[in-house]
Every structure is written in structure tokens, then in C-alpha cells.
Amino acid sequence: MRRAARWARAVRWARAVRWYLRELTGESEYDRYCLHRQRHHPHAPLPTRREYQVLRTRHQEARTHSRCC
């Protein structure tokens, strides 16, 4: 196998691993949220990643009826 083909395979593998890890950890959710906001609300300001996490946590807690603490 040629060197270029091996390199291309390694790059594809690394990209797949990166995609999987971002999906697994939820990091890609913010990117999808930003795309949605830009498409549907282009003039609204985008929250920072930290602000998004706070909003997401509040939304999840509001949906939960019982809390452990």
C-alpha cells in the first residue's frame, strides 16, 4: 500500500474517532445549536458555550419533576 493511501486511511480513522468522541461527550450539541440559531434566528445573539451549558442544565432540571436533593 502506498504511503499516501495509508496516510489517507489514518486521517479518515482519526476524523471518525474525533466525531465519535464529540458525539459521545455531547460537545457537538453546541455546534448544532449554533447552526439552528443562525438558520432560524439570524439576528439573535448566540450564547457562549458556557451560557449554553447553563441554559441546557436549567432546561433539563425544569423537565425533571423529582430531584434527589
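(ticket continues) Second input and output from the same batch:
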Amino acid sequence: MEGELQKFKADFFKALAHPLRIRILEVLSEGERNVNELQTALGSEGSAVSQQLAVLRAKNLVSSIKEGTTVVYSLRDPLLTELLAVARQIFDNHLVEAISLLEGIRNEK
């Protein structure tokens, strides 16, 4: 069972391993969107957005509901919003460390 958990985690993080997929999740963390709204928010063409949405759907990270001729997407699990926020905090911490290191190097001159 332990190996299955690591496989799940690895597959989960692989699904997050694309900048456009991360951005889609960030936009969806603000609320439901259809493909046209996602394209506008992301400034990206439809085929790229649709491709990445397919990956996110296959990994059960987003869900979709058909409303007439429009498909509306949302986060499958609201905890994804928290995960993205934690990732942002980790990124910020790394930046602070890098800036401190750079300042230390500059002060040695």
C-alpha cells in the first residue's frame, strides 16, 4: 500500500508539472470558468488550453459540467487552492534566500 501512495503522489505532481496547467488551476481557484473565459484569462489559444484541461480532467484535478453547448470547469477539490498557496509561499521563501545570498555576495566586494 505504501508504494501505491508514492505512485499516486508522483502522478499527482506530474499532472501539475506544466506552467499552463498550474495557471489554469490558479484561475479556477477563483471560480468556475468555461473554455472561452479560461482562454481570455490566460491569454492563450484554445487548443493549448483544451489540451491541458484534458490532462487535468484525466488526473481528476478538475471537473466539468455541460451547460447547453458550454462546458464549465471547476476545481475538483478545493484543497488545490491551498496547495497552490503553499507552493507560492515556498517559492517566495526561496526568493528571499536567493536575495539574501546575493546581498551577501555584493557586500563582500
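Agent notes: The first helix runs from residue 2 to 15. The chain has five helices and three strands. Closing as not reproducible unless the customer responds.
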